[in-house]
Specification:
Layout: H1 3-17, H2 23-34, E1 42-46, H3 52-57, E2 63-68, H4 71-83, E3 89-93, E4 106-112, H5 130-139, E5 140-150, H6 160-169, H7 181-191, E6 193-199, E7 207-213
Parallel strand pairs: 1-2, 1-4, 2-3, 4-5
Antiparallel strand pairs: 5-7, 6-7
Helix pairs in contact: 1-4
The protein binds S-adenosylmethionine.
């Protein structure tokens, strides 16, 4: 079991009871995302946590595959879906790194409060997980969208880069990567995405982006 799996498994129960910190912003993000949905859509959510967002979106699309590294998060998500009689969401314990799907599989991919928690394996200047963004691009159908809400700590808390490894070592935090909104936008456009929607509710708040795959492109 990896350190990340242990960390998220351990806090799953507490995480499921935590109230949403900014309910109006959450509602706006749900509404904007649903504006892109159609009833026949196939959706992937990675880092789905305890499943609340997938369950809310479920009635608006055909199917959601919701994955998370933590078996405990997935167990909570599944029990909530069962209790609410939601049958078109498949919850699975799987990492985004392990996920293996054919190109052009999904109409929409959601990555909410997750990109800053992933390793950039590119060994590049930015801490943004560029290879995973490229992977999301590949798995989207032409015209498909990637909706992401991401804490970009590099803009207002660049010093977090120093304490993040200490906090992780002590088990207080998971892996946290520090990058700026502009670095995230650049990584998305470098992967081939066009930014269709971008909104940041406030200075220290997560940026919400809907990035679109050009509908003339089926690969690269
Ligand atoms: C901050 S929580 C966000 C959960 C949910 N998306 C939300 O907005 O409430 C991050 C989630 O990502 C999961 N996670 C962390 N690393 C992951 C990975 N490599 N692949 C898939 N899930 C991961 C964690 O288990 C956790 O549930």
């Amino acid at each position: 079991m990896t350190t990340a799996t242990k960390f998220w498994d351990k806090i799953a129960e507490k995480y499921s009871k935590k109230p949403i910190s900014d309910e109006p912003s959450y509602q706006k993000k749900l509404q904007v995302t649903q504006g892109y949905f159609k009833p026949d859509m196939q959706v992937l959510e990675f880092g789905c946590g305890t499943g609340s967002t997938a369950i809310i979106h479920a009635p608006y699309v055909k199917h959601i595959r919701a994955i998370d590294i933590s078996a405990n998060m997935i167990a909570i998500a599944q029990s909530k879906a069962t209790a609410q009689d939601i049958n078109n969401v498949t919850f699975e314990q799987l990492t985004i790194e392990e996920l293996d799907v054919e190109d052009c599989t999904y109409d929409a991919v959601l990555g909410l409060s997750i990109l800053h928690l992933l390793e950039n394996k590119e060994n590049a200047i930015t801490a943004v997980p560029a290879s995973l963004i490229a992977k999301v691009y590949q798995m989207l159908k032409p015209g498909g969208v990637f909706a992401t809400s991401t804490a970009c700590l590099g803009d207002n808390m660049p010093w977090f880069k120093i304490i993040a490894p200490i906090g992780k070592f002590l088990g207080f935090f998971p892996l946290v990567k520090v990058f700026k909104v502009q670095e995230l936008v650049t990584s998305l456009t470098d992967a081939g995405f066009v930014i269709d929607y971008q909104w940041q509710p406030g200075k220290n708040k997560a940026v919400f982006i809907v990035a679109k795959k050009d509908d003339t492109k089926s690969d690269s």
